[in-house]
Amino acid sequence: MSARLATDLNEIPELQCSENVLLSSLTRFAIGGPARILADASSEAALIATLNMIRDANHPPAPYALIGGGTNLIADDRGFPGLILRYTAKSIEIYGPVVRVAAGAVLQDLVDSTIAAGLQGLHTMTGIPGWVGGAIYGNAGAYGHSIHEFVESVRFLDCSARGSKAREIGNAACEFQYRESVFKRHKDWIVLEAILRLPPGDPVGLRAAAQGILKVRNEKYPPTMRCAGSIFKNLILAELPETVRGQIPERVIREGKVPSAYFLELAGAKGMVLGGVQVADYHANLIYNANGGTAGQVRELIGELKRRVREQCGLHLEEEVQYLSCS
Q1: Which domains does the chain have, with CATH numbers?
Q2: The whole model's pTM is what?
Q3: Per-residue pLDDT of the chain (327 residues; tens, 9 = 90+)
Q4: Could you give the angle at the alpha carbon of 87 between the alpha carbons of 86 and 93, nearest 5°?
């Protein structure tokens, strides 16, 4: 990345740039080397201006990557040689049952705002870390509910062609599935904001329910634990081979899904240690940075867990986590 580009970026209004920022400070795993530049765009104009400048023919090509709250991110130990871009607009506006929320808003702030407004649905997501853009991107959810149930539309920046263009699509076009959306398949689409519609609820009851959920979540994923929550997606029961379905105890099945932890436990995952990273001894689908863990160790441990489940159960586990590579 040229020194001139770094200088020019600092001239963009509403863009905050920092140099040589450790990605370990931006991710919940607390893993990752330095990014050459971290650029936080707090407005759409700043985001577009930054993208245009990166692609400007007057500057040498610069690698860049967009991230959010870093909740599900495994960043390369070598860092990132270019620009890490974050869209940090945080507005939350509530009009009756309709909520307009920017992608950079903290998901918990959205949950708290809807509870205070007497709107139910998102209260089950209390305690889930990260930002709203990432929640839309990965169709975040908990306790049998996902955010897609309440999404009316999503506004995003389409960077697939020369020049970035804002577009808006409805729920169906977002192609939401379990922990999936169209945005995962279009890496050049950047979520800007979402319109949600929520049913009414009692704030007192919703707050009590949320506190109960938070207590359970904090016992499983303590806030100080350096982890990304569940590493692997759960499996859809109907999509499993019949021979496998017949061996799964009824008590394990939840809302038509089988927890990956069930198969990981069969494969002896609990308590596994590799260098500074470890599988929790109480939850086979939880890897955490116990003591100076590295991205290389996390990747190697994930690979070993996938191999064991594949060989023992004949199943392919798919990660929920995303990887940020140096190259």
Answers
A1: 3-87 (3.30.43.10), 92-204 (3.30.465.10), 222-324 (3.90.78.10)
A2: 0.92
A3: 667 778 889 899 999 999 999 999 999 999 999 999 999 999 999 999 999 888 775 666 678 999 999 999 999 999 999 999 999 999 999 999 999 999 999 999 999 999 999 999 999 999 999 999 999 999 999 888 899 999 999 999 998 866 788 999 999 999 999 999 999 999 899 999 999 999 999 999 999 999 999 999 999 889 899 999 899 999 999 999 988 888 899 999 988 899 999 999 999 999 999 999 999 999 999 999 999 999 999 999 999 999 999 999 999 999 999 999 876
A4: 150
Strands 151-158 and 189-197: antiparallel
With contact defined as beta carbons under 8 Å apart, do 204 and 117 qualify? no
- Report which of 180, 220, 228 is spatially closest to residue 32, judged by C-alpha positions: 228
**Is the Cβ–Cβ distance between 259 and 220 less than 8 Å?**
no
Q: How far is CA 273 from CA 248, 269, 288, 289, 304, in A?
A: 27, 9, 10, 10, 11
Residue 65, both tokens: 């990557």
Contact between 147 and 131 (Cβ < 8 Å) = no
Q: Are 50 and 85 in contact (CB under 8 A)?
A: yes
Active site residues: 179, 230, 320
